[in-house]
Write a structure and sequence with these properties.
158 residues, alpha+beta, Lipocalin, 10-stranded antiparallel barrel, 10 strands, 51% strand, globular
Length: 158
C-alpha cells in the first residue's frame, strides 16, 4: 500500500514537471517568423524585401536573430540577447542603435528600446496574435538619419 502511494506521488510530480517544462517551451514569441509584405506598412519606405526572424524566448530572457534584404536590396542581419530586466544589452546590425533593453509587457507582448549613446532612438512593440500564427511589430522613433519612423511590420509563423 505504501509503495502504491509513493508511485502515485512520483507520477503526479513527474507530470507537473513535464507540464511546467512544456509551458516554458511554449512561449508565444519563440519560433521562426517570415515577413509578410502585403500586411506591413512602412513610413517612410521602402519596405524590406524579405526578413526571417528567429526568436528564442524564455521566462527571463530573449535571443533575437534576424536576416533579410532591406528595401534597397542590401542584406541585413540583427542579433541580440537580453534579459527582461530593463538593463541595456549590446546589439549588432541595428541602424541607429547599438544597445537594446527589453520589457515583457505580457505573455504575448515584448517592448524593445533601441539605444545609441544611451538615448532611445526607436521603440519596437511586438505582439503575437491570440492564435499564435502572426506577430505584429510597431516601430516608432527615428532612423539612423534622424527621420521619423512609424513602421508596422507583420510576420507569419513558420
Amino acid at each position: 500500500m505504501q509503495l502504491k502511494k509513493v508511485a502515485i506521488v512520483c507520477a503526479v510530480m513527474c507530470a507537473a514537471f513535464v507540464l511546467s517544462a512544456a509551458a516554458k517551451a511554449a512561449d508565444p514569441q519563440t519560433g521562426t517568423w517570415k515577413f509578410n509584405a502585403g500586411k506591413s506598412l512602412y513610413s517612410p519606405g521602402p519596405a524590406a524585401k524579405s526578413i526571417t526572424l528567429t526568436i528564442w524566448a524564455e521566462e527571463k530572457s530573449v535571443k533575437v536573430h534576424s536576416e533579410g534584404i532591406d528595401g534597397e536590396g542590401n542584406p541585413t542581419k540583427v542579433d541580440f540577447t537580453a534579459n527582461f530586466d530593463g538593463k541595456d544589452y549590446p546589439a549588432t546590425g541595428i541602424a541607429g542603435g547599438d544597445m537594446v533593453s527589453v520589457e515583457r509587457v505580457d505573455s504575448n507582448t515584448l517592448r524593445v528600446s533601441v539605444k545609441k549613446g544611451g538615448q532611445t532612438t526607436m521603440t519596437v512593440t511586438s505582439v503575437v496574435s491570440a492564435d499564435g500564427k502572426s506577430r505584429t511589430s510597431t516601430f516608432e522613433g527615428k532612423d539612423a538619419e534622424g527621420h521619423d519612423v512609424k513602421n508596422v511590420v507583420v510576420y507569419d509563423k513558420e
